[in-house]
Design goal:
heterodimer; A: 677 residues; alpha/beta; Rossmann fold; two-stranded antiparallel ribbon; elongated; B: 47 residues; 2 helices; disordered C terminus
Chain lengths: 677, 47
Amino acid sequence: MQKHSIKIGIVGNPNTGKSTLFNALTGARQHVGNWPGKTIEKKEGVFTHNNHAIKIIDLPGSYSLTAYTEEETITSQFILEERPDAIIQILDAQNLERNLFMTIQLIELGAPLVIAINMLDLAEESGIKIDTKKLSTLLGVPVVRIAAKNKKGIKDLLDTAINHSASSRKTGIKLKYGEDIDRELIKIKDFLKIQKHESPSPEWTAIKLLEQDLRIEQEMVKKPYYFDLKRESDNSIANLEKIFGKDINTILAQTRYGFIKGLAKETIRQEKEESITKSDKADKILTNKFLGLPIFMLIAWIIFQITFKLSKPLSHLIELFIAEISERLTSILASLNASEWLRSMVIDGIIGGVGGMLTFTPIIGILFLIIAILEDSGYMSRVAYLMDKFMHKIGLHGKAFIPMILGFGCNVPGIMATRTLESKRDRLIAILINPFMSCGARLPVYAMFTAAFFSANEGLIVFSLYGLGIVIAILSGLFFKKIFSKKLSTPFVIELPPYRWPAVTGITIHALSKMWIFIKKAGTIILAFSILIWLMANLPQGVEYGSEESIVGILGKAISPIFKPLGFGTWEASVALLFGLVAKEVVVGTFGTLYGIAGTGDTQSLSTILQQNFTPLSAYSFMVFTLLYIPCIATLATIKKETNSWKWMFFSVFYSTLTAWIIAFLIYQTGKLLGFN
Amino acid sequence: MKTTIETIILLSAISFTAIYIVKYIKDSLDCEKSCKNCPHSKNCGKK
């Protein structure tokens, strides 16, 4: 029998293990990365514990509860408006002092707080000992030791949160800001009391008024006593700034940090003096000014080598399996005396389109498994750090590189991740350059062409395409910087979380989900498009299958002159690119279906047919065009939504297509001049 | 009989194609949905 339901929120600085804890509690499969800024919305999960129905909410990571960024606003709004029964704040044991700043604010906010100290093992490895019992006494809130990754201490944490939610003593100590500040806070609180202002925490409201917090200002402006209150708080601010000779935010922050310093002195013991951690040692090489980038490029090159080497035998097995299915279906249909068109639809249309796609499943799985390992280990944050210099050249900072890395998976979450950028101009640039990052959907196109033309150097060719995407993104950023404004972006320090061993379950789940999405896409949209293309290749009635006279042939022929200077002026290539607007994988499905038709009754593989229609140079030019041309419709819809403007969406269509055409043209024509074919 | 079955198969394939293409385009235009379809990141959700 269930007692009652409890709502618990998980908060904390970025990259402290909130999502890992959320997954451990709910069994969810949210991807966890060892870098800041992965979650910018709240995620909910429901489960039961000791007969309690628990609703848990994973809030975005933030450093404080001011209203500077969206993450901070979401967290404070949740606590104030949704009134959770308990708030679990995860603290990274290795960066306790920095994490405690938010703790102070949560206590001031009146949150029913339970502290979970995570990654104690790593801290202890670095010689950091934390007296959690003393910390709990000094803060006046429960403190629990956990290891979210290994699911240790989770039960204890839940029990504590449930007990705490039921207890009347929910808030912690009251931070003393000193006589002068406290006097001004009392003045404001008294004023609010007289006005009968309703607030879950008058202390918090008063402090936020002193801080001139944007959100509180917006809330107060609706009140009839706003102008009197504003005058009151402005007077208090002026008084304090006069007394301290500093601006109010510095005064308040210094007081909080003073308290934290004292707290840390009481509860944290550094056993090894200035010990150099394994992470420090690794960073000396991996983030070295001269070695960092070459090492990153080497790692990227190795990733593609491993991906193609490991996936080849698996892809071959799938190919054999599909060939077997195709053979069996052919004989079944023949024994049933099925019409020629039905045989063609099943074998050429469906098996050709969907089967061709499925052979690339291992490549997707292996590449994303390796990328997940790099994310989880903390190396991707170092990549953002290394790219900082280049990002500054385009007027952005390294933080903007994180959405770009996410774009390697899919441009949609990549574009959404730009929400972590404070400046509108930074966001717009980051959104417009994101589609140049080669998403997972383009990988099957590369795999199909490299298998046909560059089988000895598959990894290198794909590596060059990913690299080209980054270069074009950076050059475009430079161009946009010149158009928009030259002013520097808001300053930001990139965090370098310590390296850690990736959680095997997490990365496996991530790679499997990626493969499942790919298979699901093959069974739905690729299947649908394979049938559509097959139909269009058969109509109008009486035309030869897949001939230039068919609808698909007429359509392809109409647009193929545009691509002739790029080396791939065949109508089949044009149709593939046209349908690729829906989803880039459809390019592969289209070739599979169309060339399946061309090869009816023949044993020619897709690679052989591609070799008859492309040269290595035109194949590379085609891959470059696929990399850079119009983003898929999901990405376009996201650009429209995130920029809230049709103008920028159409600009992205125009800009990316023009860029793709120019770069593919330059590559093909220069290649020809240099004697390549 | 054979022709009837084959016609049903063809019509089913056409219906499936039409439904899935419309559904896919509709889903793609809903960025929250297409973002959530990608397990790579959790950066989806309402502003």
